[in-house]
Amino acid sequence: MKKYDVVIIGGGSGGMGSAYALKKGGYSVAVIEQENSLGGTACNAWVETWIQGLIPPHIEKIFSQLGNHEKKGELERSWIPPRFSKDGGDEEDSIIMLHEPLSKKYYNDLSGKVDILLNHELVAVKEKDGRYVRSIVVLDKKNNVKKSLSATFFIDASADGVLCRLAGNNYFYGRDKYSIYKESIAAKDTTHCKECINEPSLFFRIKIKGKEEKEGKDYDNCTTVRYDNATKKVVAPPYINGDGYPSYFWVNPMTGFDTPGKPDGIPPVIKQGILPTFLIYKKRVIEYWKFIKLNLEYLPKENKRFRAWAKAYKNYIYTDEHASYLGVRESYRIEADRMLTQNDLSEKISSKNLERYIAVGTHIIDFHVSFGLDTEELKRFNKEDLRPYGIPYDCLIPKIFNNILIASRCFGASQIALASARTNMLMAQLGWAAGNAIRICLEESLNDVRDVSISKLQDSKLSKDNSEYTEFYSRVLKLESKMKNI
Ligand SMILES: Cc1cc2nc3c(=O)[nH]c(=O)nc-3n(C[C@H](O)[C@H](O)[C@H](O)COP(=O)(O)OP(=O)(O)OC[C@H]3O[C@@H](n4cnc5c(N)ncnc54)[C@H](O)[C@@H]3O)c2cc1C
After folding, report:
1. First-to-last CA distance in the chain?
2. What fold, for 2-175+329-482?
3. What is the reported pLDDT for 103?
4. How far apart are CA 21 and CA 282, in angstroms?
5. Is the distance from the beta carbon of residue 159 to the nearest atom of ligand 1 less than 6 Å?
6. Domain-by-domain residue ranges, the chain?
7. Is the CB of 122 under 6 A from ligand 1?
8. Is 225 a residue whose pLDDT tops 90?
9. Is the dihedral of CA 329, 332, 338, 342 positive or negative?
10. Which tens digits make up the pLDDT trace of 98-108?
11. What distances in angstroms separate CA 230 from CA 34, 234, 466, one per listed residue?
12. Which atom of ligand 1 has the smallest separation from the CA of 325?
């Protein structure tokens, strides 16, 4: 059995943050990633837009080192969304890092310093000893061989909380009842919507049609979507709608499973898992594209359901390429020492009292499936009450373990809080903080992640130049310098 100081499960925005924090110091570290390349949702699901937010040091460095053709946006403007910025700006000021160069950059920066096990999936917990996970089993998918790995500490950056769930920690998904966290946006009656989650998207690629080019055979073979001459309507399955975001070459289709309110409404990513859901979405992206094309062709009048689609897209074709990984917005949330809730989102972060915060969220509460929620209150809260808020370290600590930290979308948060917090930049912050916290544990031979000195982790007693860990304090100061009076 191979023994490590730290094993990180998942190589996405969160897991990469942890790996960068741990790559120096001479510790033995492994990243276990089930896919063929690093980067997770931001790379393999093509979610290349990094919505504005406090930028952790490793992302600042990566962005500055990528070539101009591999990134877009201006870093300084991307620190804070326009609604909180004294300089205004707009949402387009988010940075974009193209998926392939970012994934390669991660690999080049980390290989030789940490063990990167691609195509390896965590499948079981092998040994547990009270509040400690001691070893795990991973499947080498290429060679179909199982391997055991042991570690002093683990970081669950799997987005779905795979390690914590396999190890027996409690978890949640779907709507939280109002009575749990007393959130004003929460569904007051969850009878018909308790399973609702923000639906996944499978990104696909389009391009401007060349002279001799036409849509591929998948388009013609798709018979479930067609124009009906008799009724003069585009006929399509009920799960297809025209919402979505076309970008410079990819499309983020917001078309999905329509789970709300059904008696058996458990979302497929929960009920069947991500892979079977991905296979269904592969079929749906061509249905979605044909639906858009036929509507633009036959029903060219302005149509509110097509807010993202200009007539110009008539001249585009589907390239038969889609992301290799399903973009999952939401799945499991792990029960942690502290659960972040809507009520925390109106507490403005302050460098004068950093409390136990290790990351800052600034994005609106962003629901794509809002069934059952108080949508008027949601709008009001985003407009009036939301502030740049802190995320306490305790939200990364799974309730029943001492040697695991969570550094990913599955961290301790209510569904409502996560709808704001799930952005790439925030996951990178969580990963960076978790990796630095484990560094402190290793340096000080701590047995429990709860014993980490938060002020040390935040570097709150150090100036910017001699920061050793997260640089959180100086970064909050920088954020404040950009913030308007709110
Ligand atoms: C459609 C969509 C649009 C979005 N739009 C934006 C946006 O515009 N801007 C923005 O900032 N954010 C956006 N987000 C949110 C953001 O992209 C994600 O929340 C974020 O990337 C999640 O990062 P993560 O590190 O938590 O998880 P991931 O990046 O998903 O990483 C988890 C990794 O763990 C691996 N893994 C899982 N299980 C196992 C296992 N058993 N063994 C080994 N490895 C495993 C996965 O393969 C994956 O690589 C969007 C998300 C989606 C889905």
Report:
1. 54
2. FAD/NAD(P)-binding domain (3.50.50)
3. 98
4. 36
5. yes
6. 2-175+329-482, 204-322
7. yes
8. yes
9. positive
10. 999 999 999 99
11. 49, 11, 73
12. 47
